[in-house]
TrEMBL record:
Keywords: Cytochrome c-type biogenesis, Disulfide bond, Redox-active center, Signal, Signal-anchor, Transmembrane. GO terms for molecular function: oxidoreductase activity. This is Thiol:disulfide interchange protein, thioredoxin family protein. Residues 53-204 form the Thioredoxin domain. It is found in: Cell envelope. Residues 37-50 have a biased composition (Polar residues). CDD domains: TlpA_like_family. GO terms for cellular component: cell envelope. It comes from Christensenella hongkongensis. GO terms for biological process: cytochrome complex assembly. SUPFAM superfamilies: Thioredoxin-like (SSF52833).
């Protein structure tokens, strides 16, 4: 993994410094769309219709350290009308691609009460401790890209507040001086000009500090950043990156992450358990979407599959589902909560794109969700 990250860093920072304003890398063999094709929203839509963006509690109280070992709390937001919190990872090409311009925005908007703060998410060891090797890489990237603003390392407070619900990078949120989120979250990288439009709009629409509105409470799922398409308690926590994995199918054959690179632009992964209701309908619906598109590939990840291989194959056969049914990676098995089938969208390079979708959602939701995921992948977002 370290070798791969170094290769990415060299490719994006050393050999291609002059290309930072070019399109972010897209999936192998995938058609690359222009920025206007991949992002049909207008600036007005990007800023939401309301002139006063919704405010929600987010980073109101936390303790952490930055990449230089300094203690950081919610006081980092104090005295700044607006803070851009950019959640990124060292393996993410689009993240690195936009960081030079984020560094420029941090300097250019300083006098307007604005700042940029980074949150690199891939600096923890499996036991939850900080990897100094990864922190060194964070600092190296920050230096070479000019992203010399503060980079806060994940702490349990930050994980609980936001990071546990991040399923793809880069993701960006804006907060006020109290750490309350202002407006929506922004998935994927953007050009400097696009960010300027968003920042200018937010700064202009935000009330003065003395007149700031109290945070508006949202329902628990929305405040936690969980897709409203996921019912009950189903959620993804610390979504895994399918960068490299090896598992087996129901016949014991070895399957690797190469299954994500079979000439399609996106892989849909149906996560299900033999004990859940709605499996047959989910398998049928998935098969219908796979038949209707050459842009998507399909796999199943079956939880608690050991000893039930025959039952699983029979369920899939009866549903007419001919896509591979795999045993989940150890990481995935520990990240799913719930009791109903759901679908993940996975880019060819292994990143989960957007939020998971409840397989019981209607046809309109499925179609919109797949279209959004394809747009994101073709624009090079999400690692």
């Amino acid at each position: 993994m370290r070798k791969q990250k170094r290769w990415i860093l060299a490719a994006f920072l050393v050999a291609g410094m002059v290309m930072f304003t070019a399109c972010a890398p897209s999936a192998p063999k995938a058609e690359v769309k222009t920025e206007s094709e991949a992002s049909p929203q207008t600036p007005a839509q990007d800023l939401q219709a309301s002139s006063a963006p919704q405010v929600t509690e987010l980073f109101n109280q936390f303790t952490a350290v930055d990449s230089n070992g300094n203690d950081v709390t919610q006081d980092i937001f104090s005295g700044h009308k607006l803070t851009m919190v950019n959640i990124w990872a060292t393996y993410c090409g689009p993240c690195l691609n936009e960081m030079p311009e984020l560094g420029e925005l941090n300097k250019e908007y300083k006098d307007k009460g604005f700042q940029v703060v980074g949150m690199p998410i891939d600096v923890l060891n499996q036991d939850g401790s900080i990897s100094q090797e990864q922190v060194d890489l964070v600092n190296e990237i920050a230096e070479k890209t000019g992203a010399d603003y503060t980079h806060i390392l994940p702490s349990q407070d930050l994980i609980d507040a936001k990071l546990k619900n991040v399923t793809a990078v880069p993701e960006t949120v804006f907060v006020d001086e109290n750490g309350n989120q202002v407006g929506k979250s922004y998935m994927g990288a953007r050009s400097k000009e696009k960010w300027q439009e968003i920042i200018d709009g937010l700064l202009a629409s935000m009330p003065d500090t003395d007149d700031a509105q109290a945070p508006q409470k949202e329902d628990a799922q929305q405040a936690a950043g969980v897709s409203s398409n996921i019912s009950g308690e189903t959620a993804m926590i610390n979504a895994p990156i399918f960068y490299e994995f090896t598992t087996t199918d129901m016949d014991g054959n070895t399957v690797t992450d190469q299954i994500l690179n079979e000439g399609t632009q996106l892989t849909l992964a149906l996560v299900w358990d033999p004990a859940w209701e709605g499996n047959a309908q989910a398998l049928q619906k998935m098969q219908e979407y796979l038949k209707g598109s050459t842009a998507i590939n399909g796999i199943g990840f079956v939880l608690n599959a050991d000893g039930k291989e025959t039952e699983i194959k029979e369920t899939a056969n009866h549903a007419g589902a001919d896509f591979p049914q795999l045993k989940p990676t150890q990481e995935l098995a520990g990240y799913i909560l719930g009791d109903e089938p759901l679908v993940l969208a996975i880019a060819p390079w292994g990143s989960v794109v957007g939020k998971p979708l409840a397989a019981g959602s209607d046809v309109k939701e499925w179609s919109a969700w797949i279209d959004d995921a394809l747009t994101d992948v073709n624009s090079g977002c999400c690692g």
